[in-house]
Amino acid sequence: MENISGILFQGISGKILSGILGISLVWTFISFFFPLNIYVEAASILSGLFFFFKNKLYQEFYQFSKKDFGLISVAALIIMLAGSYYPYILDHFGYYIPTLQWLTEYGLVKGISNVDLTLGQMSVWHIFQAGFSNFSDPFLRINAVLLIIYSIYIIERKDWIHLCFLPILLLFSQSPSPDLPVIIFSLIILNELIDGNKNINLLFAFSIFVFTIKPTMIWLPVLVFLSSVFIFKNNFKPLFLGILILVLFFIKNIWTFGFPVFPVAIGDLGVFWKPNPEVLKTSSQFAIMKTYDMQYTYEEIQKFSTADYIKNWLSLDGIKSKINILFVLSLAIFTAFTWIKKRKLITLICISLLIKSILTLAFSAQYRFFIDVFFVVFFVLFREYFNQKKSIIVFSVLSLFFISMLSFPALIQKYIPSFRVGSFMTGFEKEQLYRPSTYEYRQFNTFKIGNFKFNVSRNYPYSFDTPLPAVTPFYIFDDVKAGIFPQLSDKNDLKKGFIWKKMTPEEKKEAQRVINIIKNTDK
What we know:
This protein has helices at 2-5, 12-30, 38-54, 66-83, 90-105, 124-131, 142-157, 166-169, 179-194, 200-213, 219-230, 240-256, 277-291, 298-302, 306-314, 319-341, 344-363, 371-382, 388-407, 410-415, 473-482, 505-522; strands at 444-449, 452-457, 484-488, 498-502. By secondary structure, the protein is mainly α. The strands form two sheets. It has a two-stranded antiparallel ribbon. It has a two-stranded antiparallel ribbon with strand order 3-4. Strand 1 and strand 2 (452-457) form a beta hairpin.
């Protein structure tokens, strides 16, 4: 990758990040035509090993002193321990694993959002994870590997404040959550900009890559673009690689979802496999209700005045309101800090975060969409305050706290009952010391409506290990309510994708029978 596009930054971590970018782009292209199966993985790993020894990359590790290597080792052990706990993020079961299953068995499937709207995302990070999930990472702990890479970057760059973030990010190490890579990559790019890295071509390309993983990170490419124009005085030529990545991202989304950016139904090209408008409308309404933590109905929210929108969002029951208030305070404090400092780069960071915040608040102001803002604000405000000693102390204390939280989740459930994720943590088991903890269920029913034969998890709302093609009960209810159901474009070839079709009277009867079986089984 460095031979093609140049060096992102010097060091082992720079090479690894360039490799992650290169592999992700290559596998995204491959997945249009082939599944990311064991053959793709084996070829990629053999290529990596070949270049590792041919270019003597192992010599890079000699740069570390004994103290540096000791710190990396301790961090790696803590990360591996944290990554060995059971997954507890609900998206792991309803979104991450089903996405990986489709990618490894079929690749990118045209119109897959007609089967399950969530699958239309097909995040580039899940493409990267899927390619390593056949034999080298069957437990799906690529995020733990990324945290170790992040710790190497911290030691290489001697920017110690990053150590303060590592313990918090341990909470994302059990699942291939795209939240972790976008937080880490954004902090690294931000750090490089502040340190004066002038390789705008690769920085912008990598910022677009972060955007393709999670579009709520729109602030990062905006920041790099503004820096290119107002600080480095570049023309648009250095942005070419990033634009190519963005085009690939749009094509991928149109292929799986029908529109350029998931889940926004903007930029309609009229492709015949796009989701049904009623399903998109239901999804949009659900996103608005999620903004208010499902504490109000859609009809109630529609009756809010402008003052009600703000007041009710800041006064939700439980921990969500505290996070929302902290978010507003963080932006206000950072804006004041920017005004006082009057430094060009900090001003551009502030403008980028405000653009992102306005867009997030306009579409769906869920805390998981702006959690990265907290990291950025803390990083810029306290970067010069945290030296090595202070950072190691914070790292040690917070690591102990979060490992204890993962080990004894009953404490969270008792003292913060509104933090629902805590109720899905299961604590420590000695078996995880030699094998990461995973769940197995494999209970399902098989149905057929029209030309589509599919599986549905029995007495469980998600299809995390149900054989493909699998449909989540929630989306069956939505489809039947809209009077439509997914069908194969070619009844003899699932790889050719899915469309939605209005149901015939016979299909409606069969669909109602399926719903009755699901409801009776759930009882």
